[in-house]
């Protein structure tokens, strides 16, 4: 997962290098377009797709041949395609929006060219995100790395062909990114069908699953996870974009915005490691809960958080060690280098909290608790961190450092809340929730009946569980738990 993340990061760096070779205007327009696309498009699609992660990982843990995985994949693709329609309309209106916001007309025109050429990427991302989660839930990660590596190898010559040979300029850079995702999508589909991965999740009768479960209920289950996941992802993504806007209001906006760009690239690089660990922990926790092994799920969460803390310490050491030389890789401006060197230790402290809290988010995703993660991010970043950043940056006079101290406050609050929630998790309860989610039910709509009957040699003291909801004909079916403990109780 780490290698895959580095490959995707390298791909974005190649695109930025080609933008930089085109000159200041294409670089500014492309950067603005990428930021706009991240805020209004990519963050939303990524967040919505994350909603299928606990469904797939828990279903796979409960039954390695569960048709729930394939159904979740189909529904998520349809959900993302539907969400792409208003996003595409918004992108088409980007030029007018930027002009209304007071952006330079030339930069706005360049950004418009880039984002209009990126429109096909919405279609591709609507398939790529769910496919990656579908494979990751089954612990299939190495082929993802191979496909990403091959797509990266093709990305460089495609950029050269479109930008340098055909002279397509900023549109060529955008189209090269589209072709990179197209290549990745084709490679993933070839892998899935060539190795028969799609045949491993055809156990049971998914047609029967459709007939016995209300279709609205199944969609409600997915949306109930996808929407909070989307909010959680967007809240964190948008924070950094807001920081860039705030930098434009400081005393030396050109230097602070440039330094912020360098620091965001740095934190994006460091984020690859905890985010990869977070994906692994989410999958492992979901698999263990789906397999009815709460102790192993708790152990996986504890090990993951410990590794996250170690990654945070390593990131702090790295940031402090390179603070005087790092900015020289990006710029020759003394002012920008001094600003970056002053803030890099604060960035390292932020990563000390960001790494374990990112893993904590993975634990909550594995438990199908995205709403909790969204609430933590909302309060930590916007209820606590943002006021601190604005206060220190603009009223106390700490300027650029004040904004980053606000981020440090947000990360400290976030990691404290995340660790507290994980510590207080009832893992047996999460296992019961996983059994219901893996069967396609929705907790809020399920009528639960517990039947505890007299001892029987046939049941061997085991617990039998069957899950259901009110179906489309209005006929109730019940989630029944049968426990054998020598007494009879009906609730």
UniProtKB/TrEMBL annotation:
This is Protein DETOXIFICATION. GO terms for biological process: xenobiotic detoxification by transmembrane export across the plasma membrane. It is a multi-pass membrane protein. Belongs to the multi antimicrobial extrusion (MATE) (TC 2.A.66.1) family. Keywords: Membrane, Transmembrane, Transmembrane helix. GO terms for cellular component: membrane. Pfam families: MatE. Its main location: membrane. It comes from Cocos nucifera (Coconut palm).
């Amino acid at each position: 997962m780490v290698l895959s993340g580095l490959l995707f990061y390298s791909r974005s760096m190649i695109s930025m290098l080609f933008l930089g070779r085109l000159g200041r205007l294409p670089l500014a327009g492309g950067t603005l377009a990428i930021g706009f696309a991240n805020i209004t498009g990519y963050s939303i699609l990524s967040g919505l797709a994350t909603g299928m992660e606990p469904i797939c990982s828990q279903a796979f843990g409960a039954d390695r041949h569960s048709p729930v995985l394939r159904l979740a994949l189909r529904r998520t693709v349809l959900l993302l395609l539907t969400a792409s329609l208003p996003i595409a309309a918004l992108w088409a209106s980007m030029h007018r929006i930027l002009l209304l916001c007071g952006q330079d007309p030339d930069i706005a025109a360049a950004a418009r060219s880039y984002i209009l050429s990126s429109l096909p990427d919405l279609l591709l991302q609507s398939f790529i995100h769910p496919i990656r989660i579908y494979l990751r839930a089954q612990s299939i990660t190495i082929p993802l790395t191979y496909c990403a590596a091959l797509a990266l190898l093709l990305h460089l010559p495609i950029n050269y062909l479109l930008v340098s040979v055909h002279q397509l300029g900023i549109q060529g850079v955008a189209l090269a990114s589209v072709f990179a995702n197209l290549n990745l999508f084709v490679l993933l589909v070839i892998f899935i069908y060539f190795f028969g991965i799609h045949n491993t999740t055809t156990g049971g009768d998914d047609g029967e699953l459709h007939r016995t479960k209300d279709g609205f209920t199944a969609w409600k289950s997915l949306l109930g996870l996808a929407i909070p996941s989307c909010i959680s992802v967007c809240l964190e993504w948008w924070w950094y974009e807001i920081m860039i806007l705030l930098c434009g209001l400081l005393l030396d906006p050109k230097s602070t915005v440039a330094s912020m760009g360098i620091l965001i690239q740095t934190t994006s690089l460091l984020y690859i490691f905890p985010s990869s660990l977070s994906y692994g922990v989410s999958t492992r926790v979901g698999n263990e809960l789906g397999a009815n092994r709460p102790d192993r799920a708790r152990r996986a969460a504890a090990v993951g958080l410990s590794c996250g803390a170690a990654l945070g310490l390593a990131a702090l050491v790295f940031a402090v060690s390179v603070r005087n030389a790092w900015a020289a890789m990006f710029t020759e401006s003394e002012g920008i280098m001094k600003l970056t060197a002053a803030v890099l230790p604060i960035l390292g402290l932020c990563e000390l909290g960001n790494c374990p809290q990112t893993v904590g988010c993975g634990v909550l995703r594995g438990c199908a608790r995205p709403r909790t993660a969204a609430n933590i991010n909302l309060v930590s970043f916007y209820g606590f961190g943002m006021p601190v950043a604005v206060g220190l940056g603009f009223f106390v006079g700490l300027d650029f450092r004040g904004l980053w101290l606000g981020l440090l406050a947000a990360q400290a609050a976030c990691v404290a809340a995340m660790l507290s929630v994980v510590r207080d998790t009832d893992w047996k309860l999460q296992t019961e929730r996983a059994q219901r989610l893996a069967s396609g039910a929705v907790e809020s709509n399920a009528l639960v009946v517990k039947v505890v009957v007299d001892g029987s040699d046939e049941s061997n003291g085991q617990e039998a569980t069957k899950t259901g909801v009110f179906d489309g004909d209005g006929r109730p079916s019940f989630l029944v738990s049968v426990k054998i403990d020598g007494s009879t109780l009906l609730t």
